[in-house]
């Protein structure tokens, strides 16, 4: 994982599925399996952080999932303003995070271009690129 740097990966401890050949294989005890999964998960978080940082300053086309008030998403925001939750080719619905667009009236279910400007609370933040 350290060498290949897969941007997105789900991690879980192995649990045998009854009736499969793998269920009959030798495997570590539950504590060891959970510890190994946690180690891989930590490594994956570092890889994902690095990937997200590499996206800062880039422009990408996104699908607007939902128009929101940015204070609903980022409670640290002192004055609420309109915004949107969007996703690019790199964010899978219901699995990965999103990109928060702050400001501007943006309609849901449309495609827009955004500039990724930073990371807040583990999620990418950007602004709409107006042509």
Keywords:
131 residues; alpha+beta; OB fold (Dihydrolipoamide Acetyltransferase, E2P); 2 domains; five-stranded mixed beta barrel; 5 strands; elongated
List the helices and strands and how they pair.
Blueprint: H1 30-55, E1 59-69, H2 70-73, E2 82-87, E3 99-102, E4 111-120, E5 123-128
Parallel strand pairs: 3-5
Antiparallel strand pairs: 1-2, 1-4, 2-3, 4-5
Structure, described:
The protein is α+β, with helices and mostly antiparallel strands and 131 residues long. The chain folds into 2 domains: 1-55, no CATH class; 57-128, Beta Barrel (OB fold (Dihydrolipoamide Acetyltransferase, E2P)). Helices cover 23% and strands 28% of the residues. The chain contains 2 helices and 5 strands. The protein has helices spanning 30-55, 70-73; strands spanning 59-69, 82-87, 99-102, 111-120, 123-128. It has a 5-stranded mixed β-barrel with strand order 1-2-3-5-4. The longest helix is centred in the first third of the chain and has 26 residues, at 30-55. The protein is elongated.
| Share of residues in strands | 25-35%
CATH class value of the largest domain: Mainly Beta
Structural class: alpha+beta
Looking at CATH, which topology of the largest domain would you report? Answer: OB fold (Dihydrolipoamide Acetyltransferase, E2P)
Q: CATH-wise, what's the superfamily of the largest domain?
A: Nucleic acid-binding proteins
What is the CA-atom radius of gyration, in angstroms? 19 Å
Can you count the beta strands?
5
Portion of residues in helices?
Answer: 10-25%
Main pleated-sheet profile: 5 strands, mixed, barrel
Mean pLDDT: 85
């Amino acid at each position: 994982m350290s060498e290949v740097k897969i941007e997105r990966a789900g991690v879980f401890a192995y649990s045998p599925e009854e009736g499969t050949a793998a269920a009959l294989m030798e495997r570590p005890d539950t504590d060891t399996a959970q510890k190994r999964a946690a180690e891989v998960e930590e490594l994956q978080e570092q890889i994902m952080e690095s990937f997200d940082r590499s996206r800062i300053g880039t422009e990408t086309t996104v699908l607007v999932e939902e128009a929101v008030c940015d204070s609903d998403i980022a409670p640290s925001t002192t004055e609420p303003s309109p915004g949107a939750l969007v996703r690019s080719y790199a964010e899978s619905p219901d699995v990965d995070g999103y990109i928060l667009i702050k400001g501007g009236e943006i309609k849901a279910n449309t495609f827009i271009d955004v500039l990724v400007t930073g990371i807040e609370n583990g999620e990418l933040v950007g602004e709409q690129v107006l042509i």
